[in-house]
Amino acid sequence: MNKLELISALKAEANISKSEAAKVVQIFFDSMAAAMAKGERVEIRGLCSFFVKEYKSYTGRNPKSGEKVIIKPKKLPFFKSGKELKERVDN
Q1: What pTM value is reported for the model?
Q2: Of 42, 80, 81, 87, which residue is most buried, by most CB within 10 angstroms?
């Protein structure tokens, strides 16, 4: 399911206009992104959680030349599925 399909599903289920559904989905995504940008965890009980992992700087290698490269510290978003989602997918 992509963003447009999510908007269409919300439109049909909530009986609202497509523009209203698009606004709701955009607010939801923007709120999640803003929270994660502040380092906060986003948890939707039973479904999933999103969180940010921080990585320290380390020395890596360029796969083509074998040359050592310093990798800068970084933050990456992660997704973890909830128990109920795992059970629904497995059935």
Answers
A1: 0.76
A2: 42
Strand 48-55 and strand 58-61: the pairing is unpaired
- What is the average pLDDT value for the chain, to the nearest integer? 95
Integer Cα distance of 80 and 41 in angstroms: 11
Q: Enumerate the β-bridge partners of residue 58.
A: 71
Buried b (16+ CB within 10 A) or exposed e, 50-64: bebeeeeeeeeeeee
Would you identify the CATH topology of the domain 43-91? HU Protein; Chain A (4.10.520)
Going from N- to C-terminal start, the domains of the chain cover 1-40, 43-91
